Amino acid sequence: MRRFLKRLFVLKLYYSGFNWLCGRLMTRRIYLVGYHNIDTDMSKYAKVTISPDVFEQHLEYLKYNGHTFVSLERLLSDDLGAIRKPTVIYFDDGFKSVLTNALSILKKFGAAPTVFVTTDYIGRESYLSWDDVHTLAAQGATIGAHGETHTHMTQCTPEQLQTELVEPRARIKSECGIDARALAYPNGRVNDTVEGVAQKAGYVLGISSVEGTNSISDLKNRGLRLKKIAPKPYDDLMMFKVKVYSWNLALSLTRLWS
Ligand SMILES: [Zn+2]
Fold it and tell me: Domain spanning 2-257: which superfamily?
């Protein structure tokens, strides 16, 4: 029943034109669209794998709707000026498929990815090696951190939190010479304590579990609690479109009414 109602809601948002209208109005929002594994083999990491074809359809939709793909580095360093719908495509965990499958698709759209690596995973089967991370960085990817061991940071002791936040920056620096200033919290888990330690560790941008888009002032004022758009393997293209513009807005509106 819940699934049926959700579907009905998605259809309503789409066919009423509400999603389209939101898309027309939300030209100054910042969109962080997050993926994990891009692969035709869905058997191994089923919950986080999206096929290259679907991934390309997502990028096509964004391009068609006037999004400007920007690197995360640009969000960090630049005044975004008049850029229309600045959009970052990012990948959590550090799957090798970012290099082998996603990069060539991203290039077609002139998009530079951001890769949040879990430093303990590097070199494991299905994951990037440090050489791969180098290659990605050399091709314009922004490298960020995603914890040392992928432990949920809200459950960490103060010592563990140091390890999960400070160590990855140090390792990325020593292995690649990159100053990683952005992180995606594993499973998006963040609270005030985690945010405080992250800030002290030198991070200026963090992606939380909250879904939605960000304003330009959020970058400065809530930089360590940014919202994301998170396509799921079971979402169809219509769900993706609705997630980009109207799903979260509509959910908050229904909460206001109830
Ligand atoms: Zn993760």
Answer: Glycoside hydrolase/deacetylase (3.20.20.370)
Q: 89 and 106 in contact (C-beta within 8 Å)?
A: yes
Going from N- to C-terminal start, the domains of the chain cover 2-257
The Å distance, Cα 10 to ligand 1 centre, comes to 27
CA–centroid distance, 82 to ligand 1, in Å, is 32
Tens-place pLDDT, residues 172-201? 999 999 999 999 999 999 999 999 999 999
Specify the pLDDT at position 1.
65
How far CA 22 is from CA of 60, 81, 101, 106, 243, in Å, comes to 18, 21, 31, 25, 11
| pLDDT (0 to 100) of residue 226 | 97
What integer pLDDT is reported at residue 157 of this predicted model? 94
Give the distance, in angstroms, between the CA of residue 83 and the centroid of all CA atoms in the same chain. Answer: 19
CA 150 to ligand 1 centroid distance, Å: 6
The string of DSSP codes covering 12-54 is HHHHTSHHHHHHHH-SS-BEEEEE-EE-S--SSSGGGEE-HHH
Q: How far is CA 99 from the centre of its chain?
A: 16
CA of 124 to the centre of ligand 1 (A): 15
DSSP conformational letter for 206: E
For residue 227, the model assigns a pLDDT of: 97
Phi-psi region of 154 (alpha: psi -120 to 50; beta: other; left: phi over 0): alpha
CA of 200 to the centre of ligand 1 (A): 22
d(CA 126, CA 45): 10
pLDDT(78) > 80:
no
